Amino acid sequence: MIVLDENLKDVHLIEAIAAWYPGSVTHIKALRLQTVIKDDAIPELLLTVSSPTFVTINVDDFWRKVKPHQGYCIVTCVLPQNQVECLSGLLRDLLGKPEFDTKTARMGKVIRTQNNRISYYERDGRIKEV
User: Fold this and answer.
1) How many CB atoms lie within 10 A of CB 112?
2) Per-residue b/e over 56-81, b at no fewer than 16 CB within 10 Å?
3) What does the alpha-carbon distance between residue 31 and residue 33 come to, in Å, rounded to a whole number?
4) DSSP-derived pairing of the beta strands 2-4 and 73-77
5) Range(s) of the domain holding residue 6
6) Rounded Cα gap, residues 60 and 70, in angstroms
7) How many domains does the chain have?
8) The dihedral of CA 125, 27, 104, 91: what is its sign?
9) Per-residue pLDDT tens listing for the chain (130 residues)
10) 3-state class (DSSP) for residue 28
11) Measuring CA to CA, which residue among 22, 18, 127 is closest to residue 76?
12) How large is the C-alpha radius of gyration of the chain?
């Protein structure tokens, strides 16, 4: 399951990802309807569903601030709001890499993509480059 952050609520983006991703694609608000979801509550909310990959362009609030957990993956994309239409292709490329191409491989990682660079960390906190 891919879960998009609240600032990625464009229905066309969900459709673009769903066109190639074999699992479900949803929005974070669908996990807890009619409530405001603060960024610090997202990791706990992600644990209510099975093996989600959470995607956000809100890098500053997640990268190096969220503790990795085997129950989810967080993907942060350095991308301005006016370029979110590029996110589907960027995410497809990322999930095609051997380090991230299965749910099992992704879980427990916090990933950052920026200008064709991919970094991630796991529980040990060491940043690795792909």
Assistant:
1) 19
2) bbbbeebbeebebbebbbbbbbebee
3) 6
4) unpaired
5) 2-129
6) 22
7) 1
8) negative
9) 999 999 898 889 999 999 999 999 999 999 888 788 888 899 999 999 999 999 999 999 999 999 999 999 999 999 998 999 999 999 999 999 999 999 999 999 999 999 889 999 999 999 999 9
10) helix
11) 127
12) 13
* Segment (H or E) for 73: strand 73-77
Task: Report which residue type is found at 60.
Answer: D
Spatial separation of the C-alpha atoms in residues 26 and 2, rounded to whole Å: 6
Amino acid letter for position 118: I
Helix or strand holding residue 19 (H, E): none
Q: How far apart are the first and last CA of the chain?
A: 23
> What does the chain come to in residues?
130
Q: What is the pTM assigned to this prediction?
A: 0.95
* CA–CA separation, 83 and 87 (whole Å): 8
d(CA 55, CA 89): 13
Inter-residue contact 2 to 25 (CB < 8 Å): yes
